Amino acid sequence: MTAPALLPLSGRRIPSVVPGASSLTHHRATLRLSEKFILLLILSAFITLCFGAFFFLPDSSKHKRFDLGLEDVLIPHVDPNIQGRHPGLAVIHGQGDHDEHRHREEEESLRRKIRADHEQALQEAKEKLRKTHQELRAEIQTEKNRMAQDLHKKEAAALPLSPVPMPRLVGINDGDPGDPEMKEKRDKIREMMKHAWDSYRQYGWGHNELKPLAKKGHSTNIFGNSQMGATIVDALDTLYMMGLHDEFKDGQAWIEENLDFSVNAEVSVFEVNIRFIGGLLAAYYLSGQEVFKVKAVQLAEKLLPAFNTPTGIPWAMVNLKSGVGRNWGWASAGSSILAEFGTLHMEFVHLTYLSGNPNYYQKVMHIRKLLAKLDRPNGLYPNYLNPRTGRWGQHHTSVGGLGDSFYEYLLKAWLMSDRTDTEARKTYDDAIEAIERHLIRKSSGGLTFIGEWKNGHLERKMGHLTCFAGGMFALGADGSPNDKAGHYLQLGAEIAHTCHESYDRTVLKLGPEAFKFDSGLEAVAVRQNEKYYILRPEVIETYWYMWRFTHDPKYRQWGWEAAEAINKHCRVSGGFSGVKDVYSSSPAYDDVQQSFFLAETLKYLYLLFSSDDLLPLDSWVFNTEAHPLPVLRLVNLTLPGSQQ
Ligand code: DMJ
User: Fold this and answer.
1) C-beta separation of 320 from 261 below 8 A
2) 96-129, pLDDT tens digit by residue?
């Protein structure tokens, strides 16, 4: 191991500058490959330092290059006293002596500096060689992490988003309900949020979710194998609304330092959109902190490859690193799912608005246009669409899982556009009309329910997820065609009542995942695997919308019943857990604190006991994960890309 071969500077050979180098030559033969690599790295670092030293010198000193203590071996020595070689030096004698003296001093000081640098580098190299394999690996890993962080900071800085006029942000206030009883209830909900957050902070920080009994992190396949702090992002706006500002700042700091989307993880496009992009956008609008906007746009870029399908209908999943997309195997021969590709509109319109990039808007408008061209069996939208052929899959229609938020986003696209997107409203109205005709029935006991359409047959079963529709009908009542506002508000109230019954007919006073209206059964679950409650929000969501539109106190009462039941049966020392059987007085826990419990369930409860001027519904539209986005009053504004 001799340096000269690597340093052909002047054609001369440089003696080894590493003491003991020859003994290393023998030793190196016995080193493992990775150690050899590290050794090589150290040496190249040392050599680079020699070169680097030169380039970092001040400009004036570069004129004395190679005159740095190694001059004897690098270049022929130059004697400045020899006249003719330095004509300028002899012109003014006194001055010449003085200059010469000064130059010598400068040279000497430079020599000292370079020697010191070399000695330090050698010392470091020696210390490195004394370290164990593990220590070196740890050091390399730390260095890699630091470089990755620097890169992310640069990436973030390299994404300038030109400022756009901020939409009118109305009603970001305390929402004090006035009434002391309501205040007390609201404080209790806030305390529950704090318990959920603190537990996650303590046991699951940075993981997607929390296992509140095992007291450790948790994740599911919707997030791939990533650790993207889903609970942090999902909870931010709830923390903000509740005035939990230290917790909010803690979450923000984590996002700034750790939220990284260049991970080799295959995630659900829908879930990442509603929880992460929705959560980041809402946090941005509420707090005004740029980092959330930048992160939302960065993440959206990572989702875009999912749209690279023959039809432009996105894949359900995309690998954030490679951009490769695919569909769930179980979804009607690899189809895309209506509620997934149909629940992107709100967030994508905001992304275009904030970034000026027309791409997002165009992607979701393309989906809308494609759907408009397709025939619909009985006017109903099947839940499955093949992204390769653009044809419907299995004829299964549902306002619960697989279909739900597609309808919700049609209505909300209209509301979010300040009611200018009339195409969306018309599509919503037509869809709801077909749903009412084919799916909504009254049970013999007088309960209105929304069933599921399966290949020409109505299944008289309703899911917990479907219960959100009560709120949707109430929200869409104003603006419905043929003066049917009263009808839709009534329908909302009936669904709220049915869903309340599904809670009230259990032992725990918590609703099952699915319940039947068949063979004498009314709003109760039959199968064991439909008896669980996993901290879902939909019933409470409907109570809140109904409260806002009617101010009927029963909705606050029902909401409080649910809050008490959750606190009694789902609360454990490490957070909140789902339960496996709402008909059992001592149910087993599922040991998952879902991120939507903080994003939605607790937020809707808090809003239920707040005054209406906290996030009023004519200025804010909540995405399907309860993240509030402001109405974009687009009357005098054209979104980039909307002309095409
Ligand atoms: C949430 O992630 C969203 O509300 C979604 O639209 C449906 N399901 C869950 C909560 O149950």
Assistant:
1) yes
2) 455 666 767 777 777 777 677 777 767 766 776 6
Q: Which residues contact 265 (CB under 8 A, 6 or more apart)?
A: 223, 224, 225, 226, 228, 319, 320, 321
- Considering only residues 166 and 594, tell me which one the structure prediction assigns the higher pLDDT: 594
pLDDT (tens digit, 9 = 90+) per residue, 391-415?
999 999 999 999 999 999 999 999 9
How open is the CA angle 433-438-444, to the nearest 5 degrees? 115
Catalytic choice (271, 501, 513, 538) = 513
Q: What is the DSSP letter of 137?
A: H
* Distance, CA of 598 to CA of 524 (rounded, Å): 27
Q: Tell me, yes or no, if 513 is annotated catalytic.
A: yes
User: Which ligand 1 atom sits closest to the C-alpha of 541?
Assistant: 4
Please indicate whether residue 624, judged by its CB atom, sits closer than 6 Å to ligand 1: yes
Beta pairing partners, 593: 210
Give how far Cα 371 sits from Cα of 11, 385, 455, 536, Å.
73, 10, 20, 30
Residue 357, both tokens? 């990039």
Please list the residues that pair with 326 across neighbouring strands. Answer: 317
Please work out whether the CB of residue 417 comes within 6 Å of at least one atom of ligand 1.
Answer: no
- pTM recorded for the entire structure: 0.77
- Least confident span in 141-145, 335-339, 341-345, 624-628: 141-145
| 490 to 476, 486, 487: CA distances (angstroms) | 12, 6, 5
Atom 6, ligand 1: which residue's CA is nearest?
624
601 lines ligand 1 (CB under 6 A): no
464 Cβ inside 6 Å of ligand 1: no
- Are 269 and 314 in contact by the 8 Å Cβ rule? The answer is yes
Give the residue from 407, 397, 345 showing the smallest Cα distance to 376: 397
CA-closest candidate to residue 533, choices 555, 554, 559, 507:
507
Report phi then psi at 101, rounded to 5.
-60, -45
Q: Is the pLDDT of residue 35 over 70?
A: no
Cβ proximity of 250 and 238 under 8 Å: no
CB-based contacts of 541, cutoff 8 Å, min separation 6: 467, 468, 471, 600, 604, 626
Q: Please give the DSSP secondary-structure letter assigned to residue 593.
A: B
Q: At what angle do helices 422-438 and 404-416 cross, to 10 degrees?
A: 150
- Ligand 1 pocket mutation pick from 273, 411, 412, 625 by most atoms within 8 angstroms of CB: 625
Q: Is the pLDDT confidence value at 455 over 90?
A: no
**Is the model's pLDDT at 569 over the cut of 90?**
yes
Identify whether the C-beta of residue 531 lies closer than 8 Å to the C-beta of residue 525.
Answer: yes
**Residue in 240, 368, 162, 254 with CA at minimum distance from that of residue 628:** 240
Q: Ligand 1 within 6 A of 405 CB?
A: yes
Please say whether the beta carbons of 431 and 408 come within 8 A: no
- With beta carbons less than 8 A apart as the criterion, state whether 473 and 492 touch: yes
In ligand 1, the atom with minimum distance to the C-alpha of 275 is: 2
Angle between helices 553-569 and 538-550 (to 10 degrees): 160
The answer to whether 628 touches 620, Cβ cutoff 8 Å, is yes
Q: What is the DSSP string of 450-505?
A: E-EEETTEEE-EEETGGGHHHHHHHHHHTT-GGG-HHHHHHHHHHHHHHHHHHHHT
